[in-house]
Amino acid sequence: MARLPRLNLPNIPQHVVQRGNNRQITFIESTDYAVYLDKLKQYSREYDVKVHAYVLMTNHVHLLLTPTSTCGVSKLMQSLGRYYVRYFNDTYQRTGTLWEGRYKSTLVDTERYFLLVSRYIELNPVRANMVSHPAEYTWSSYQHNGLGKQVELITEHELYKALGLTPQNRQRGYRALFETAIPTKVITEIQSATNKMWVLGSDKFKLQVEAMAGRRAAPMPRGGDRKSLSYKRQLKINDSDPIDF
């Protein structure tokens, strides 16, 4: 089956995941994490991609990004991946690939899922039983978003800024979000949409993405459910109907 083109639209957040090949370790020493983040900052500025959240695990990374162009995220990930492979191979006297093929990504319905995905990303070390709270993990954006440590890499999204009028109030409001667990169903939804590179959002959002991108935003449903996205695709999308990114 032919591979669908990647969904890339300007000014719509993307959840990006890149894994080590065969789940091999991609970060060994603290310097490795620091180099990756430094280059992420460099290339995000070069390609005008905003970084809102991240976590660097031992064998994979999660990023929440908003590009200003259709090719911004692709160029960022390509440049970052190539640089880091060279650095890692030179540092540890190895050869060959490091990353597992193409990175995975999904467009994120801002109003419904943005802060959920940000929490999902920063809770990775907790789900992996590495720490009991995201504040205990050094290599994630929770250090900025939740604790107020200045991370130049981070661009605060408007939804994050809406949590409070001052930085302290925003951090307090953000920390409060972590007092409620993300439902298992939502975690599965985030993982499925990202791994299969579909769109994470409402049916309305998916339909509007399809109209802009010219490709399916979700798998074809089974059966003949008239309430399904497949049925709704056949309806005309009202161009005057606003969409929130």
From TrEMBL:
Single GO molecular function: DNA binding
Pfam families for this protein: Y1_Tnp (PF01797)
Annotated organism of origin: Pseudoalteromonas luteoviolacea DSM 6061
The Transposase IS200-like domain, residue ranges: 9-124
Top-level division of the source organism's lineage: Bacteria
InterPro entries to which the protein is assigned, alphabetical: Transposase_17, Transposase_17_sf
Name by which UniProt lists this protein: Transposase IS200-like domain-containing protein
GO BP annotations listed: DNA transposition
